[in-house]
Write a structure and sequence with these properties.
two-stranded antiparallel ribbon, 192 residues, Rna Polymerase Sigma Factor, Chain: A, Arc Repressor Mutant, subunit A, 2 domains, mainly alpha
């Protein structure tokens, strides 16, 4: 248990972390959600849904991602009392999302089937975006997740760092290296 010491009338008095004032807006939202405030949990959802969606998109079939996002937030709501540090809600939620994606595969979810490249028909407007997403999904996990959060979910590097618990430096490096690898892969595919 974390204990804060407070100087009172010449002596130290221990104050539990629960009695200490919550410092961040996120910690206040988590505390309110724990107390049953659904609007506070809704605000947490609104703030972190893109991150959860991106993490799942990097790891699970696209057709299953929306359902998995809902699963992740239901798990988080049920386990909110297990969160030790309310300021770590984002990284905690990111870990739930990663674990949920892994569980999805363990339970026998099938990988999306790719259509043959020589299939006749007009190009679909989403075709290029799907090709880029497929190329990102073939990158190592360290690059895949930040790239999807940046390119698909539209999050900035600092947002990614704040919400996933990664350092700003590691996000910056992973985005840079991931973009280099993605350009290389897309270039190779274009030459085919």
């Amino acid at each position: 248990m974390n204990v804060l010491a407070e100087l009172r009338t010449g002596g130290l008095v221990a104050v539990s972390a629960e009695a200490a004032p919550l410092r961040s807006e996120q910690a206040r939202r988590v505390a309110a959600a724990r107390a049953g405030d659904r609007a506070a949990f809704g605000e947490l959802y609104a703030r972190h849904a893109r991150m959860v969606h991106g993490i799942l998109l990097a790891r699970a079939p696209r057709r299953d991602v929306d359902d998995l996002v809902q699963d992740v937030f239901l798990i988080a709501l049920r386990r909110l009392d297990d969160l030790r540090n309310p300021d770590a809600f984002g990284p905690w939620l990111a870990m739930i999302a990663r674990n949920r994606a892994a569980d999805h595969y363990r339970r026998g979810a099938q990988e999306e089937s790719e259509l043959p490249e020589d299939l006749a028909g007009a190009p679909h407007p989403e075709g290029e975006a799907m090709a880029v997403l497929a190329a990102i999904r073939r990158l190592p996990p360290a690059y895949r997740e930040p790239l999807i959060l940046r390119l698909v979910e539209g999050m900035t590097g600092p947002e990614i760092a704040e919400r996933t618990g990664l350092t700003a430096g590691s996000v910056r490096v992973n985005l840079h290296r991931g973009m280099e690898m993605l350009r290389e892969r897309l270039g190779q595919e274009a030459r085919r």
